[in-house]
Amino acid sequence: MRSVMIDPENEWWWNMGVWCAVTESSSSPGVIYIGVQDIGGQGVPAYSGDFPVTITIELEPNIGGVGGVARCYIEGVPGVWDEKVYGKEWDWSPDYTEDFSDSRAFMFIGSYNEASLDGYVWHDSVSVEFPDDLPQLNSIILSDTDSGSEDYSNSLTVSVDPEIEYPAEVSYIRFSESPNMYYTGGPWLAYSDPIEATFPTPGDGPRTLYAQVCDSTQTYVSNIVYDDIFIDTQDPTATCEALPEYTEDVVFDIAYTYSDPSPESGVRWVELWYRRDGGDWITYGSQEPPTGTFSFDSSTTGGDGFYEFEAIACDNAGNVEERTGIPEAETIVITSISLESIVLSDQDSASVDYTNDITIDVLFNTSTEDVVAYMMLSEDPDFSGAPWLPYENPTTFDLSVGDGIKTVYAKLATPEYTESAVRYASILLDTTDPSSEIEELPETTTDAVFTINFTYNDPEPASGIELIEIWYHYQPTISFSQETSFSPVALNQPTKTIQTSPLSQTPQDWILYTTVSPPTQSIDFDSTTTGGDGYYQFISIAQDLAENREPWPDSPDATTYVNTEGPEAEPFSDCITPNGDGINDDTGFRFPNPNNAVADLTIFDRNLVHVYHTSAVQPAWNATDDAGVLVEGGLYIFQILVEGRVYNGTVLVAR
């Protein structure tokens, strides 16, 4: 048999009497309820079961001067009280033992004044003996379901580890936040060891959980035990303090603050995260317990660079601060500064080999871009007289005057003037325009496709010819009015001003025929793609690798008259020799004029400048201009207009 003492000094029972009850059933010797009973008659059972028991009662003598007896109340339903006395009445004695195993009784332990039926006497102790094979709950241990901590939990659901005698007899367990489990106990749950239990009411802070077990028929109910645990469901925080913008120290301190919202379990550890140059976040390590400062060694994390930091905390309940990836502190570690190379380039063309302007672009290639504060540039490798300038990438630099190879030296510095290595690069300054010229063409040609030869040159120091453009101007007929005059137009020449000159006297624009590159020095010109027969003027424009462009000329390089069908009109004499010898001093013209209509004859020089005009049925020309002055020797162009038709040709004057 086991004996359990019910201690009246337990705070549960303050101002309460102890009651015991035994009932008999057909299937078992008896049922006992042992617990506490208030004056109003509301009992709270502590043990129950179908088994024979022996109850030993020790009463205090005459508390408060009131004498009395212990009476036995017989009730069909325990817990319903009345004044009626049944059965045996016991005189008061300090010690009393009674075996209720074979009787049906409910017993209130106390005494009252028989005259007034009021007043009572407190018991001293009650012990109950019952069989050894009944389950008994000795204790429970509460712990966090994840960390196993027996002091703190970050969830209202905790792990319960019961300590039970005769666990084979236990089938169910129940929990409550109140010791009065008769009224407030939770539902019976299938027993397991361990088992999870959830506090029914929310809130952080110290919490107590009570437990009770029973057998498979829920007949034998154990005693009540409890355990305490601190519930903390709020995340702690840690924050890195601000760092200087730059540091030249390899190892430096990172201070941080940390806290845990009340009611708190307390911060257990703080972890430091970092990332370098915008890369992935990496944990640097944690401190347990936290000290408020990390010593950060950049030599173990990649060396110099832009560093960002974030701290996170974990409290004793296992709440871990969520990492945001948002930097709390940042700094640039500069223990060295690099300059891998510089690139010089023309501002317009971006060429890295040639420039036609003394002002060039300079690009710095550095892996420490974020830490550079100053730059220095010079054509002197010793940087004599060169100042430190605020860093700008890219930047500009003015070369010294004079064409040729230019070498530029550069170096960079940190805010504290830690200098990089010196790097240099070269570029050819070429400010001189190249030139080109088309070779002379025959005065007339009957070939629709003919060859145009040309030459080109780039003065030293030369960047070299990049391209040659061949331009042409086409005139299918000749203007009739001497006053008609047009300025030549150069396509793709927005910055060039073309002078009014004999270069073109027609309303048509100059047209780019083709662009070629060295070593080409000739092209085949196909007049069938440019208008067919007519008068053609040609120029060539060269451009060098420094993008110096040959100016537009005042006069064409070459001209020719294309007549693939043969002449419809021709002079009687191909060559006029106006020397007064009476031979070929003038010439008439053969052309279709079946109606003997008056024809207009106009003479132009090879630049299409008006020279002479006359009208007649059979017009002639004596190598003079309109003023009667002999013209210079050379090729002249005639145009005959008769009855709305135009006939063109050439005549040669020899003097």
Itemize the secondary structure elements and their pairings:
Blueprint (H helix, E strand, L loop, with lengths): L1 E5 L10 E7 L7 E7 L5 E8 L3 E6 L10 E4 L15 E2 L4 E5 L5 E4 L14 E8 L5 E9 L7 E2 L3 E9 L6 E5 L4 H4 L4 E2 L4 E4 L6 E10 L10 E7 L5 E4 L5 E2 L3 E9 L7 E10 L5 E6 L5 E5 L7 E11 L13 E5 L7 E6 L7 E2 L3 E7 L8 E5 L10 E2 L4 E4 L5 E10 L9 E7 L5 E4 L5 E2 L3 E9 L7 E11 L35 E6 L5 E5 L7 E11 L13 E5 L7 E2 L3 E2 L10 E4 L8 E7 L4 E7 L3 E2 L12 E9 L2 E9 L2
Parallel strand pairs: 12-18, 20-26, 28-34, 36-42, 44-50
Antiparallel strand pairs: 1-10, 2-3, 2-9, 3-4, 5-8, 5-10, 6-7, 6-9, 11-13, 13-16, 14-15, 14-17, 17-18, 19-21, 21-24, 22-23, 22-25, 25-26, 27-29, 29-32, 30-31, 30-33, 33-34, 35-37, 37-40, 38-39, 38-41, 41-42, 43-45, 45-48, 46-47, 46-49, 49-50
Taking the sheet with the most strands, its summary is: 6 strands, antiparallel
**What Rg do the Cα atoms give?**
60 Å
Unreliable sequence segments: 1-130, 478-507
Shape: elongated
Number of helices: 1
Assign a percent range to the helix content. under 10%
Strand order of the largest sheet: 4-3-2-9-6-7
Strand content: 35-45%
Number of strands: 50
Number of domains: 6
Mean pLDDT: 78
Q: Specify the structural class.
A: mainly beta
Termini separation: 159 Å
Query: What is the multimeric organization of the chains shown?
Result: single chain
